[in-house]
């Protein structure tokens, strides 16, 4: 499922190729299929219920059996059985939700409600059903598609496949889209009757894939090298062109890092270009640390997924193999790069782990050369920053981060003697250059990888070979004394002359200060920009006279 992609500022064609490789087959996980049924039997019907669509049948069922959202979830089928279900007792429940379109305008606007069928596993306790979401999930959405429908804004609803019923089926552990459709149809027929779905009404062009996932479960000891490998991929993609990247890392428990990264430029690493963004994540169960190491849920998963497209149509169900090939290649390749072997895989109820069948794929090559070029560029940046003639501030900041394998703002302020605003300013610049990254709350500052950390240590020793800890402590003390002297001088001149005068500074067209009331921004905008490090301590003033106690 490849497309042409426009040229990026940096391409790796000279170092990137591929080679045949074999890895245990990553398991297909969550996926979804959408359908459209052109099932309007009587388009001129006076009543909606007489149009004959599956949506109208579902709405009539809700009115006759439920009638009030307070009665939801409604137990539609208590003993649901299908040959694709694992052992257990299953039920189908029914809920509804307000949809984005309806009829009428203004005060007369009335939204349509989509219908939801959901699979639940249950036990009976004291005569009552105890419902729970099973590992093999199923959720079917039944959505109206009628030309007279409008959004609340009054804009018309587009029906690209004509009038009828739109179906959206979400499930887990399905190896092909036809299995997803079969599960969806089984649930619909169990609730609304054997004739609920007529496949002759199905529009083949509308059979699309809104979501697909592939994953492996691996030993927790491999989590750190895998996350470093993914960090490297993120840095290479960002370095290689104008990538659209969303990434976040969130520390949930001590020692547990959830890593999520979305990009549309994986081709920069040698993967086949795609017309959709691919998300990669590493995650674990919320209570993994309470489970013994021998239990599979103690160990993390590596997953690649896609969820929709930015432009054009969703992939057709006939493209399923291409989509899964790409997702599995991303998973297997990063596992290889991180040194994850067959013996490192963990078996669970749905993934065979080391016993998974072998899978042949084309693994992109040239990563070592890419990283070498990237680190050469970063080395140049570190040299330039450490050798600044105008100040030793950046050198001292880099030195603290290198010596301690990372540092927070308090440590950087204490060890360098620099003002907090100066520390934040330089750290922000270094992060923008890709030398360091910031993580957590309170913020910790790290070099972007172990390789860069080691290279930074070499460079810092090289540029100032005579520098000693005593020298650095002396510079820090001099900075603190200088700032204290400046503060004393400011206290002796409370009037604030020269550019310290708000009116004079703003009237001269310089970079002075202005009253917040005269700006289009609010105090909340200022707080937001400070939080994102787009403003720092030097950009905001507060009057000292008559301050509330917390600000004195």
From TrEMBL:
Composition skew (Acidic residues), residue ranges: 489-505
Signal sequence, start to end: none
Gene3D superfamilies per UniProt: Winged helix-like DNA-binding domain superfamily/Winged helix DNA-binding domain
Pfam families: DUF7845 (PF25227), HTH_24 (PF13412)
Ranges where the record places region Disordered: 464-511
Domain DUF7845: 110-352
Biased composition (Basic and acidic residues): 464-488
Protein's UniProt name: Protein containing HTH domain
Domain of life where this protein originates: Archaea
Source species: Natrarchaeobaculum sulfurireducens
